[in-house]
Amino acid sequence: MAEATQRELPPVRHSLSNPSDQEALELDQSQDQPFSTLPVTITDRRTPRIVRWWRSHVSLGVPHAKCRDHLANERTFLGYLRTGQAFAILGVIIAQLMQLQHSLHPNPVLGFFVVSVPLSSVCHGSAILISILGASRFFHWQQEMSRGYALFGGWELHSVAVLTTLVIACLFCLVLAISIKED
């Protein structure tokens, strides 16, 4: 008779009006699950090297409790890509605008027409370098987070700041020198 009175209750379903409260509830429920519930792919030496690299560096199962860190890492990578893209666009603008400043008797040593292509090339090189730095940072931090380490800071951010400052200062000095020389 005691067995008949004990029933298993159905799981409680919360109807929360705020989506962030629902996400917090799901996050609390997912933290109870161990990491062993994630699928693990075992590779051997017969698997091609690129497939092993892809599985260990790119494809990564992330538990819901840790997805915030990985999404922040992706947003940071997209920030590096946006910065590189801004430098590439700046290079195109410099090349186009300074080519339009071609006068009838241009200065063959220091003029807008002369410095447009090298300065544009510097901007495009900076764009490529920033994108490569962002990609290397993304893969390094993803690997460290998959091991369970939490990182902060990094030399990449400082190098991009120094590079940006140098390119903008160089651009400002060249435009100022050309403007003074033409006047």
Automatic annotation (TrEMBL):
Q: Which UniProt keywords apply?
A: Membrane, Transmembrane, Transmembrane helix
Q: Boundaries of each DUF202 domain copy?
A: 68-140
Give me the segments passing through the membrane: 77-98, 110-139, 160-180
Q: Which PANTHER family match?
A: DUF202 DOMAIN-CONTAINING PROTEIN (PTHR34187:SF1), FGR18P (PTHR34187)
Q: Name one Pfam family in it.
A: DUF202
Principal location listed in the UniProt entry: membrane
Name of the protein this chain belongs to = DUF202 domain-containing protein
- For whether the record's keyword set contains Transmembrane helix, the answer is yes
A single Gene Ontology CC term: endomembrane system
Write down the superkingdom of origin.
Eukaryota
Q: What segment(s) does the record annotate as region Disordered?
A: 1-30
State the membrane topology: Multi-pass membrane protein
Q: Where in the cell is it found?
A: Endomembrane system
Task: List, alphabetically, the InterPro entries matched.
Answer: DUF202, IM_YidH-like
Q: Which organism is it from?
A: Exophiala viscosa
